[in-house]
What we know:
CocE/NonD family hydrolase, disordered N terminus, single chain, Rossmann fold, Xaa-Pro_dipept_C, CocE/Ser_esterase, hydrolase activity, 9-stranded antiparallel β-sheet, mainly beta, 11-stranded mixed β-sheet, Jelly Rolls
Amino acid sequence: MNAVTPSVEARREPNYLEDHPFDLETYSLPSDITLEEVLIPMRDGIRLAANVFRRPGAPAAPVIVTSTPYGKDNYDQWNNFRDAPVGNVPGGGFYLGSVRISDHTAFEAPDPGYWVPHGYVVVLVDHPGMGRSESNPTLDPPLEERWHDIISWLARQSWCSGSIGMSGVSALCATQWIAAKDPAPSALKAIIPWEGINESGPAGGYGGIPETAFPGWLKSQWIGPNVNHAAHGPERLLFDWKYDTTKISIPALICASFSDQELHTWDTFDAFTRIASKDKWLYGHRRQKWGAFYGKNELEYQRAFLDRFLKGDASAFQNQPAVRLEINNSRFDYVVVTADDWPLPATSYDTLYLDAERAALSADLVASSATKPITATHAGDPQNSLSFDLKFKTPTTLVGHMALKLFIEVQDSDDADIFVGIEKIDAHGNKVYFFSASGGNANGPVTRGWLRASKRRLNSARSTEWRPVLDLSTSSPLVPGQVTEVNVPLMPSGTTFQVGETLRLLIQSWSIPGQWEGGETRQWDTLKKGSCCIHTGPEFPSRLLVPVIS
Length: 550
């Protein structure tokens, strides 16, 4: 580990029962920036609609481009979060954080009000068949072809210097994984994928338990209203794209946060580890997602990166550590840690054995065997939840992936759903909360994970002890009365525990808004019958692997 900076200065923790959670400020796009709609021709004869923001008469400039399924002309979609499904915000809404953008900033897209005055052209393209773009779903062309045509056309424009980069959040991050795949367009010089999906999708896919609420909300509030009914229908949507980040070799500045555990944490950290780029950086935080993307310091950081690779400024973005993370003591109190790689090279993985008899975690394998049940019914019942505690005797910092190995036995069913949470308890017995769920849940846990036991098969080529990767392509029913080993991967996190503070492991068959869930209300299609016993002890050594930083 290279360096640790002091924690940020103390600040007042907002009273979320009184303060409005939605803090969005917009300013007028500067009058010398023009907006022009262009139609970009594709090789199959259709045209994609795009908005171009630039300063007429200015010298040719690098272009920042991305595409959106939400409509390039929709600048008010941020207001969807005022009435988001009820989560932890009293009365509904979403803890957006502090966001300041121009009034021509589409959802999760680069702000032309910032980038154009700093010598860039900003281009936002409607997905094929969305917004004002045409489509050809019958041909179903690879999206890589679409991006080669888009970038080739942009590079030929008189206002483009010939250097093109990409930037954007979530769905606008996902499209970058496609556009940058080798062989990438020659004009595409760098990407800024900021907290976005690749393999798992937005609905809890990585653990095998179907989640039904968020995809419906996304379709009804975001994607559905932006279908171009004058086109021939949408082409393949981002959930069906074929991602392979190992085939990306251009420079990349990747943001992966500890506060987006319901959506993007798993996928974006995974992308950083697998991407083939020689020049790659990881920016990590545990704050609200959009507040970070549009934050003053983050914008300067992004601009230095693009100045180097799009403008050829050799003095920009020099001596930047490969990995920059925020390690939290609590919701607002954190230190910044820099390192040469992820996972952090200084990591040691300690084993904590579960003791069902004492509801404890222990560094030593417990001598006696015990079992405790959880039942598939009674969602939200605190009595139907198992807890295991470890009180720290020395200050301990955990940064990275945790992995839970369980030995389970089902009754009256051939399957089981397992939800896992790691919580921090202070020395006085109070829960310590963190931002999670896109940063919109202010009362999140340290980390969490989930597994449908029939989906327990691991991807042997990619799994490690500390990061089991589920295969998910097959289902293997459990045999009632037979003890079976399962591995539950937990999202990456970074947390410091002081002397007298407790790490609490929770295992249950349910997950509900108000406990770990955030602003996008989760509705898990969980199993409705049967029980599952957790075995602990010398014969069945259930254990939690934790990443300790010295």
